[in-house]
Design goal:
alpha+beta, Thiol Ester Dehydrase, Chain A, 6-stranded antiparallel β-sheet, two-stranded antiparallel ribbon, 3 helices, elongated, disordered N terminus
Length: 154
Amino acid sequence: MSETEPTSETEPMETEPTSETEPMSGAESTLSPGIERRDEFTVAPPLTTDVGGTIGASVLSTPGMIGMMEGSAQMLAYEHLSEGQATVGFEVCIKHVSAAPEGAVCEAHATLREVVDGRKLRFDVEVTEGERTIGVGTHERRVVTFSQLGSPAA
């Protein structure tokens, strides 16, 4: 496993399978507000920046941090979806409040806050280094079926 690949702890959740005839409503019965996931990662390229050499050190970049937050939310949702479903992200509202140097061990944390209409998922997301908050915000994803995604262009 590379240093930037997350490891995870997910709270167990008992669910019943949903009917394949109701693919969009399946999110309500399998995704419940309060479930969460934590992914530990080490700050390393390609998650870093030195801001064009202006700061004299490599730190966790804002896009890298947001990617780790989105990844935790995406995997949390995926673990509770019916077969044939996925999620797509459509909104992030993030504050990057502190630097994390290259080599730091951080944790991306996602908590499902709300499920709207059985398909819109609202998450609280955060990245920490120990007790320090590196970034915090919200992220929204939409439940889709694979058939809604279409086929790749030829």
